[in-house]
Amino acid sequence: MPVLTAIDVLGVQRFIFSSNRLRDVVTGSHLVHWSTSLDGALGKLAERGDIIFAGGGNAVIQFDTLGKAHDFTARYTRLLYDEAPGLEVAVVHKEFQSGKLARALREVQIEMARRKTERTPSVPLLGLSVTASCQETALPTMGFDAAEPTVALCKGILKRRERKEAANAHWRLYLERTGKPEFSPEEFDFPLELDDLGRTIGDTSLIGIVHIDGNGVGQRIKTWLEGQEEEQEKKADGDVAVCNGYQEWSKAIDDLGQKAFQAVVNRVCQRVEQGDRDGKRILCITGSPFGLGFEMKRVDGKWMLPLRPILLGGDDITFVCDGRIALDLAETALAVFDASNVPHLGKITACAGVAIVRVHAPFARAYELAERVCACAKTMLKEKGLSGCALDWHIGSVRPGEALSEIRARQYHADGHRLTCRPYLLGDGVKEPETWRWLSRELLDNPDVGLRGKRWSKRRNKVKALAEVIREGPKGVQSALKTWRVVDPRLSLPQAIENGFFEASGTPLLDALELLDLHLVLEAGSTDQGKDVVS
């Protein structure tokens, strides 16, 4: 009797972020990818034709007998123990009758959920003798890295360091498809240190952790499987059709994630401009407003993009970048999801959470914050019954255990007025109010009424004063505008918020003010023409 074997990697975030070093986070992510990829652990132990799905920390494999499934599991878990210490997986086997593949696929998911909740947690006995502690994880030391011979490291970190080149090679493929022929891919690389992401010396350096996750993908898959199960009841044997359909949409989702990240890389590379300083060639990231552009770092003869991919598994994407471009890149990735059409599942939308923190803030905690912010965007869509993509962000760290709702209730409410409109829908265009594209292109950068436009940029003190004025509500904003127009009659806000507030949902002004000197749009602005990059 044929058998389905399902694999689910457990504690992915805990495993990846067990170290606060970016290089170890990157290689940890690569090990997760390797553990369930056709080119990694699975390709060594199973026939490609038997693998129904593999990727993103999950896999489904079909075997002829239960004995073969058990034999594979023994060899697979041993390989993980040797090559990826600390990475845990749950494995479920499900026998099924020919012609019942759709039901088996649905039931194996239910069994996997049960297995993950009922399993006995792994409690390894470590450091029973007197041992030195790993300086990254505090686990018992097993050796030293050749590049840092005085730094004691555990087995897990040592294995990660061995895979540094393989991890870099995996991501370097995205540099070969940037669509920017002026620069060869060999000139660029993704940084392995946070300090090389583009931080500006002498200025507050911020990084952005961007987490993107698809909306309701699991429910769509469940609905599709139920439909296929009904179809199989009517047919003698539809296993081949079910298997092909499963592989079609799983590959399409995987391709969608890759396409989204490729768009992010292309977006950055398209705004790389050459400059000159003291006779030396430099490269800069430029955009609008021009003053927020910054110089790229050069390490070991290569220019470091202000971007580093962390996780990429289907509809689940995480990357870290310079804080100034985090929101623009999140929008770029969401735009790809917004235009998607996955076979059998249709359009897959997504939400993005962006945590903008200081460059040396604890990395795992910053990632957790990005996940929580993303969850806020998903909750907003559910509560309002909306579809589409959404975006939310938070600037600054959060104390452990402190809820975002508590922070926003404390900082973004005054006299019954809500002083934020986050999360934002992505929106279909610039003119659609109360969306991210409207906030970025209209409220911030419209030449006439934008807070960074020609008129307001000459009244910088009044722009800053809006942060206090909005606490008095719509009447306070109207009164302030009336007073300011005595000096400059042209000062006004976009028509959708003439008094500074949306009628039902609050004001977006404080959101815009927070991004005034932080949000770099990777497009040439109308006021940027004719400026040299660096002279």
Blueprint of the fold:
Blueprint lengths: L2 E8 L1 H5 L5 H14 L5 H5 L5 E5 L2 E6 L2 H18 L4 E8 L5 H18 L24 E3 L2 E6 L1 H8 L1 H9 L15 E2 L16 E9 L2 H18 L4 H32 L1 E6 L2 E6 L8 E2 L1 E3 L2 E3 L2 E7 L2 E7 L3 H13 L11 E9 L4 H22 L5 E6 L8 H8 L1 E2 L2 E2 L5 E2 L10 H9 L9 H4 L2 H10 L3 H12 L24 H6 L21
Parallel strand pairs: 7-13, 16-17
Antiparallel strand pairs: 1-3, 1-4, 2-3, 5-6, 8-15, 8-16, 9-10, 10-11, 12-13, 14-15, 17-20, 18-19
Helix pairs in contact: 2-7, 5-8, 9-10
Q: Taking Cα atoms only, what radius of gyration do you get, to the nearest Å? A: 26 Å
Structural class: alpha+beta
- Give the CATH superfamily of the largest domain: Reverse transcriptase/Diguanylate cyclase domain
What is the beta-strand fraction? 15-25%
- Work out the helicity level: 25-40%
Q: Low-confidence segments, ≥5 residues, pLDDT <50? A: 526-535
Strand order of the largest sheet: 14-15-8-16-17-20
CATH class of the largest domain: Alpha Beta
* CATH architecture field of the largest domain: 2-Layer Sandwich
Report the major sheet: 6 strands, mixed
- Count of helix runs: 17
The beta-strand count equals 20
What does the average pLDDT come to?
Answer: 90
The dominant shape is globular
Instruction: Quickly count the domains.
Output: 3
CATH topology of the largest domain: Alpha-Beta Plaits
Q: CA-to-CA gap between the ends?
A: 73 Å
